[in-house]
Design goal:
The chain is elongated. It is of the alpha+beta class. The protein has one domain. A five-stranded antiparallel β-sheet has the order 3-2-1-4-5. It contains three helices and five strands; from the N terminus they run ββαββααβ.
């Protein structure tokens, strides 16, 4: 399970709406303050709202929770979305080279096969069982408050 922390924004029956913030790798880098990429990552952070099944946990609005996505979901969907169209394109380009077709025709056939790959992805996603790939509410995060007062500088 790939886990991510999120904040509960709405609870409706057995569904919990959470807000996860898309993060970049800049949070763990030592050179955050002097890096332009870190600044762009902070500006471009997206807040993603998604519904998650409650799984019997007692949560309320503003609670911090951990949601999990199965690794198989990430692997399968990324292979489907990227691997299938690119595989179509590369295989047609190799066949065109083997048949000694002209460069323009090879490029055109590769582009058409890429588009065909996207059509196949579209058809496959319509048959996909999304229930097994849904994020799950794993646990509630215990927020500890410090007894040491923090001063503003």
């Amino acid at each position: 399970m790939v886990e991510e922390s999120a904040q509960v924004i709405k609870v409706t029956g057995d569904t919990v709406w959470v807000m996860a913030i898309q993060k970049s790798a800049c949070g763990s880098c030592e050179a955050q303050k002097g890096c332009g990429h870190s600044l762009l990552a902070k500006v471009g952070q997206k807040q993603i709202e998604l519904p998650v099944d409650r799984n019997g946990l007692d949560v309320s609005v503003d609670d911090m929770v951990v949601i999990g996505v199965p690794e198989q979901a990430i692997l399968y969907t990324s292979l489907l979305m990227y691997g299938l169209p690119l595989g179509f394109m590369i295989s047609v380009a190799l066949i065109a080279k083997w048949l000694a077709l002209s460069e323009g025709l090879s490029v055109l056939l590769a582009f058409v096969s890429l588009l065909c790959g996207f059509v196949v992805v579209n058809l496959q996603t319509k048959k996909l069982n999304f229930e097994k790939y849904q994020p799950r509410l794993m646990r509630k995060v215990a927020v500890e408050q410090s007894l040491i007062p923090m001063c503003e500088t």
